[in-house]
Structure formats: C-alpha cells, structure tokens
Amino acid sequence: MGTYRIAVLPGDGIGKEVTKGAVEILQAVATRFEHEFEFVYGLIGGDAIDRKGTPLPDETLDMCRQSDAVLLGAVGGPKWDQNPPHLRPEKGLLAIRKEMNLFANLRPVKFYDSLIDSSPLKEDVIKDVDLLIVRELTGGLYFGKPSGRRMEDGEEIVVDTLLYKREEIKRIITTAFELARKRKKKVTSVDKANVLESSRMWREIAEEVARDFPDVELEHMLVDNAAMQLIRNPKQFDVLVTENMFGDILSDEASMLTGSLGMLPSASLSTSGPSLYEPIHGSAPDIAGQNKANPIATILSSAMMLRLSFGLHLEAVAIEKAVQQVLASGYRTADVAKKGQRIVSTKEMVDEIKATI
Amino acid sequence: MGTYRIAVLPGDGIGKEVTKGAVEILQAVATRFEHEFEFVYGLIGGDAIDRKGTPLPDETLDMCRQSDAVLLGAVGGPKWDQNPPHLRPEKGLLAIRKEMNLFANLRPVKFYDSLIDSSPLKEDVIKDVDLLIVRELTGGLYFGKPSGRRMEDGEEIVVDTLLYKREEIKRIITTAFELARKRKKKVTSVDKANVLESSRMWREIAEEVARDFPDVELEHMLVDNAAMQLIRNPKQFDVLVTENMFGDILSDEASMLTGSLGMLPSASLSTSGPSLYEPIHGSAPDIAGQNKANPIATILSSAMMLRLSFGLHLEAVAIEKAVQQVLASGYRTADVAKKGQRIVSTKEMVDEIKATI
Ligand SMILES: CC(C)[C@H](C(=O)O)[C@@H](O)C(=O)O
Ligand SMILES: CC(C)[C@H](C(=O)O)[C@@H](O)C(=O)O
Q1: To pair with B208 at 20 to 30 A between CA atoms, which of A211, A240, A282, B83?
Q2: Looking at CA atoms only, how far is residue A167 from chain B in angstroms?
Q3: Residue ranges of the Isopropylmalate dehydrogenase-like domain (chains A, B) (predicted)?
Q4: How far is the CA of B252 from the centre of ligand 2 (A)?
Q5: Candidate from A160, A228, A250 with C-beta closest to B256
Q6: Strands of A69-74's sheet, edge to edge?
C-alpha cells in the first residue's frame, strides 16, 4: 500500500524490450499487493545522443534524482561505435553512475536447478552456488585522470589512470562486510597486491575494516587466482569485493555459472539518494527488436529494487519465486535453451512470469 | 647435435622442484638426440632477497643475457609478503621481464583428452580446444608511472598507471598476427574500448596491423565478454592478444579449460636476445617441498624452449608426446587427479615422462 516513483531508462537495443517486461511485472506486483508504482521515462545512451545530442541529458538525471529508484535497460550499439568518446552511449551509463554516486554495484550469482543444462560447467561445480560480487562502481580505471593520448619524446603514448581515494575504498569494503554479515559471513577481497600500489592500499584498508566485523571472515585473493577459482570451485565464495574493472571482468565470467548473462541482475547503491537497478548484460544489438531477449535479468533487478529500495520483501520474493517456477516448468528464452527445448519469446516469458505472480 | 646454454632460475616454493624436473627431461632429450645442454643456475625472487638483498641480482641478469634461453620456476611466498615493494619476490620477475625486454608472453591452452575429468567444464565445451593467449608483458598497469600514494586536498589517494607507447602496442599485435598466420588465422584482440582510452588506441592499432595480414581474420572483443566467452565457447578462439593485466586474468581463467594451472606452459619472447620460459602457475607455498607439485607446465615450457629458441621441433614434439602418453596411461599429480585415481609425486611424474622419451 505504498506509493513509489520509478524512473525507467530503457536505453538502447534490447534495453527497451527487457525494461518493458520488467515494468509489466512490477505492475502485476502493484495490483496483487496493492501498491502504487508511478513510472516515469527518460532517455540515456545512444537514444539520448540521437534525440538530445548527449548520452545523459540533464532532464534524465533530474528525473532520476527525484524518483525513489531507477530501472535501467542497457546502452550501446554499433551505430555509435565511431563516435568521439564524449558522444558514446557508455558515457551516459558511466555518467549516471558517477553523478548519482552509485558506488556499490551488487551482482548476485545464484544457481538455478532448472538451468543446470545451460551452464558450460559441470553440475557438481555449480550446484548450490550462491555468491555476491560487490563491485566498486565510481572509481578506478573507469574514471581516473589523466586518461588520453600525448606525445612524449617524439612518441605517441596513451594512459589511463587507476585512482582511488582512501574513503572510496573504505566505503565499498564496509558495504561488502555489512552484506556478508547478513549472509554466510565471509568476504573475499580481490586485488593484485603483488603488483599494484592501489591493491596494496586496498588490502590494507580491508584489514582495517575487518577489525570492525569480528564475526565476518576476511580472505584476500589475487585477481588472476579469483578468475580461476570462480570456475574451479565457486562454492567457496560468499561475498567478493573488488575494484571497478576487476569486478566488471569477474562478474561477466561468473554469469556462466548460471548459464547466461541474461539471468544476472544488479543493484547499484549510493551513499544517499535513489539506487539504480539494471541487468548486467548489454544492449545485444544483434538480437535487438526481435522479441528474443531474456527479460529475467531485468525482472530480477526489479525484485532487488523492491527489496533494497522499498523494503518490500514479500513482493521481491513473489517475483523471484515466479521466475524459478516458470524456469522449472521448462520455459526458456534462446540464450538458456538447450537442444530439444521449446524456445519462448521475450513477451511469452514475461507473460508466463506475470501469470505466475 | 647442437650446444646450448640454458640459464635456470628455480626461484621459490615449488619453483625449485618443477625446474629440477624439467632439467632432467631436457637432459634426457640431450642424450637421446645427441645435443649438449649446459645448465647454469641463478637466483631470483625471495631466495635472491634472502641471499643477495635484491629480488634480481645483477649476476643473474648477466648470466641470463649470456645464455641461449632462460628457464624460470616461480617466485613469491608468505615469508616476503610484508616486505616493502622493492624487496618483494615478484619485483624480480617483473624486473627480468622488463630488463630482458620480454614483451610477448605466449600462453597456449590445449585440451588433453585424458584430463577431461579434471576440468570443471563440460566435455563438449572443452573438447579440442586449442588457443593461444598472447599477453603483452612489459607495459600497461604493471609498469606505468606514477604508481603510489599521495595526499591531495587533505585526502590520501593512490594511483597506478596503465601506459602504453604506440610501438609497444604495435609490436605485440604484430606478433599475434604472425603467430595466427601459422595457426588457424584468426586474431581476437581483447580490450575495453568502450571505457579506456588505451583500449581505443589498442583497437585502432589492431586495425592498422591487420591491413598487413589480409589472410588473417581480426575480431575485437571486450574483456568482460572475453572472460565469459572463454568459458562459454572456447573453441571459437585461435589467438587472443591483450594487454598485460587482462592477459594475466584471462590466462589463469583459461587454465581451467585443461583442468589445472599445473598444465600450462608459457614462453616470453624479446625483440632480440634470449627468451624466457616459465609455467604460468605460481610458487604454491602451501605444497612447496612436498614432492606434490605438477611438473608438467614447466616441462612443456622447456618443450616450447626447444621449439622457439633452438628450432628443435622433433625434440619438442618428443616431450609433448611423452607428456600426453603418460597422462593417457593414468598418471596424475594431485592437482589433476579425480577420485579413485592413483596420485603420483612430482618425482614419479618426471621419471615416467623421462622413461617415455
Ligand atoms: C557498458 C559498460 C561501460 C559497462 C561497464 O564496463 O561497467 C558494462 O560492461 C557493465 O558491466 O555494466
Ligand atoms: C607473480 C605475478 C607478478 C605474475 C604476473 O601477474 O604477471 C604471475 O601472476 C604471472 O601471471 O606470471
């Protein structure tokens, strides 16, 4: 019986289809649980470049700031690949993360019994996997300056900068510990402390933060080893916390534990102000507009919104249960279908989940 | 009937055991094919810190430069983890790479029929995988300056720098194309061009280099996607080329395609001067000195040495065949053994391979 204002940013490619699906699911939840969700729409990414000349128009940002939560689809596509850096769709995504201070990106990876056949990994490796990647989202290589080309001694060189403030590292690690406390009480801090100065500071701060959480176990793992261990024995993990770029790589890799990127939701939390929810997949230009995309990652992202932004646990569980049930009944979009299984469209998948709620 | 001088740098932990094994294999090859291999030994890593006060003594470097090839074990261990940066074992490894100009790190990943049970991945995914990761080894985040902490506006910040010269990118990509030409004629250039300036320059140079190799196909792939595709469908790859840190992460991940890091050799090539050969695994302090380590990665590295540095193809094949045969006969070190299989020691494994040559 609450009233919530949700900013929807469909973005590009399949972003439009999957957010449409998630909005329908949220509407079904509103009806069943007697809430009022107001949806307001904004432009971001390539779409915004085409219509407003910038990947993140001010109106969009203002609208998001005045909402209770943001639901985002995906951005990008070949149409804008040759654009100069400031006119690239991804800049819109990076800008909204930065502007809204969305420093903590939560990417849960959960095993689905019914998708066992879709994963390239063996059953005993992935059965019962339940881990959470906490990715730092507003610092590191993504935002550090200088970033660009210059001439030095007659040679062209290019740099990007991996930069962190102490406080930025501290708050993301603290967030990871707080989340671990509510889970299996283990934090794996992933770094490259045998090479990078930033990682050595990261490790030091992790040790400091750990002192305030005596009930949570802390382990350090080098990023190359983590990339291996995620595949070798993912069940060893509870919460992984890592810097922006490492988190980007490891979470896409981890999607294979569930069989498809199309299954993984995410939440991006700010220190204060509204949070943003988005699937971890991209805009998939190759299948855009074909009613083929897997809407589940976005639908599960909206469940995270209900739980984390609105405190609506029952409602979140209702969505998650519905997804599980529909998968168990054998419905599959193309990305997770195996030979012989009937493939459903985006719309059919959404309808099934809606009917199940 | 050639004479070759090989510098052996055992390093720390299991580095000592695995290089010892590889030297025995090389000696067996020398006998059988009537070559003369002279082995000279040098200190590196923690061992060098303890005995010479530096992770890469000048004597070691001089000795390597005066050899025809270098065989390295591994460096590092908890004993030196609290040392200041310049007195860490890894600094020795990074320094020898830089000093000897070993810019191209070749990491082949090949499927072994007999190890199918050791991989966490399903058989249809990994069967017949045969890919080569070409990792840039002397630039990027590993070596860029500035790298360190400083105060800015009263806050402590830390930076590392991802830096490349145009020429550095060009030579590694050219190397990848040359190698692909002798293989399946496909290069996948891995970058993060939707975010990093360095990646945009990388992509641009890849396009330029590709023009000189009209017979080789070039594709670009974002690093997050590559981390996923390596697990999802590794057979799509022939040669992957990427910057230092991405290559570090992706090659450890890719080791799971063969079941163990203990299987993967590598070669590090310089523009001129001797090349260096080392397993991609680390010093594994937890099992060091226990006669448990898998010596195969180092033995296969010595096969790469014979082929790439000395042009001894038959001899290289003899080693590779022997490894294959011994695995097919069921011999397994602990890292690749499955329940019910008899586990052999490092020494037994070496003896078996030697007997087979
Ligand atoms: C689109 C891209 C900029 C983005 C990122 O790298 O953060 C995406 O890969 C993600 O993980 O959300
Ligand atoms: C030991 C470490 C410095 C090294 C690296 O990161 O290059 C290792 O992981 C490797 O891959 O050879």
Answers
A1: A282
A2: 8
A3: 5-353
A4: 10
A5: A228
A6: A36-41, A3-11, A69-74, A275-279, A265-269, A104-110, A130-136, A239-242, A186-191, A217-222
Ligand 1 lined by A253 (C-beta under 6 Å): no
Which atom of ligand 2 is least distant from the CA of B93?
3
What are B96-120's pLDDT values in tens digits? 999 999 999 999 999 988 888 889 9
Contacts of B231 in chain A (CB under 8 A): 120-121, 231, 253, 256
Q: CA-to-CA distance for A90 and A36, rounded, in angstroms?
A: 32
Q: Which two tokens stand for residue A91?
A: 């800049």
B243 CB near ligand 2 (under 6 Å): no
Across the beta sheet with B144-152, the strand order is A144-152, A155-165, B155-165, B144-152
Contact list in A for residue B120 (CB cut-off 8 A) is 121-122, 125, 231-233
pLDDT at B181: 98
Write out the DSSP string of B278-341: EESS---GGGTTTT-S--HHHHHHHHHHHHHTT--HHHHHHHHHHHHHHHHTT-B-GGG--TTS
pLDDT in tens, B321-332: 999 999 999 999
Q: From residue A72, how far is each of A46, A49, A289, A299, B301 by CA, in Å? A: 14, 16, 17, 11, 48
Of B107, B158, B154, B104, residue with least CA distance to B130: B107
- Quick check: B277 and B268 in contact, CB under 8 A? yes
Strand order, beta sheet including B36-41: B36-41, B3-11, B69-74, B275-279, B265-269, B104-110, B130-136, B239-242, B186-191, B217-222
Cβ-defined contact of B163 to A163 (cutoff 8 Å): no
Residues B245-289 pLDDT 10s: 999 999 999 999 998 899 999 999 998 899 999 999 999 999 999
Look up residue A43 and give its amino acid.
L
Q: Is B168 helix (H, G, I), strand (E, B) or coil?
A: helix
Provide the annotated binding site of A for Mg(2+). Answer: 224, 248, 252
Domains annotated for chain A, with CATH where assigned, are: 1-105+264-357 (3.40.718.10), 120-257 (3.40.718.10)
DSSP A251-312: HHHHGGGTT-GGG-EEEEE-SSS-EEEEESS---GGGTTTT-S--HHHHHHHHHHHHHTT--
Please check whether residue A252 is in contact with residue B190, taking contact to mean a CB–CB distance below 8 angstroms. no
Environment class of B148 (CB within 10 Å of its CB; exposed 0-12, middle 13-18, buried 19+)? middle
Contact A286, A320 (CB under 8 A): no
CA dist A76 and A264 (Å) reads: 19
> Residue A233 CB: number of other CB atoms within 10 A?
12
For residue B341, the model assigns a pLDDT of: 84
CB of B297 closer than 8 Å to CB of B109? no
Q: In terms of DSSP H, where are the helices of chain A?
A: 15-33, 46-52, 58-65, 89-99, 123-126, 166-181, 197-210, 223-232, 244-254, 296-308, 313-328, 346-356
CA-based nearest distance B168→chain A, Å:
9
State yes or no: pLDDT of A264 exceeds 90. yes
